[in-house]
Specification:
By secondary structure, the protein is an alpha+beta fold. Helices cover 40% and strands 30% of the residues. The protein has three helices and four strands; from the N terminus they run ββαβααβ. It has helices at 23-36, 50-63, 68-75, and strands spanning 2-9, 12-20, 45-48, 85-90. The chain has a four-stranded antiparallel β-sheet. The longest helix is centred in the first third of the chain and has 14 residues, at 23-36.
Length: 91
């Protein structure tokens, strides 16, 4: 099972990658939702702005969660200066 991540700006949607859904990721997303008030269900659909994704990366670093994949996804955004958001689609 994976958490697929896309960047959407206007009508354009770009696939950025997928994260394996495991207990550490579930725990991170749950903690993120508790801290920010923005629920992120790894088995559903969520939207995050790049600033919110950056907050997720910072939280992951604080919790000892590996951030390489999270940072690669962020780096894959083709035009971060445009208004858009990340779409997270779980299995």
């Amino acid at each position: 099972m994976g958490l697929d991540i896309y960047w959407q700006a206007g009508q354009k949607k770009q696939y950025l990658g997928s994260l394996a859904i495991d207990t550490p990721l579930e725990d991170l997303l749950y903690a993120y939702g508790q801290t920010t008030g923005i629920p992120v269900d790894p088995y559903g659909k969520a939207r995050l702005y790049l600033t919110q994704w950056q907050k997720l990366i910072e939280m992951a670093q604080q919790r000892g969660y590996p951030t390489n994949a999270l940072q690669e996804i962020q780096a894959g955004v083709s035009s971060p200066e445009t208004e858009g958001f990340l779409i997270l689609l779980g299995d």
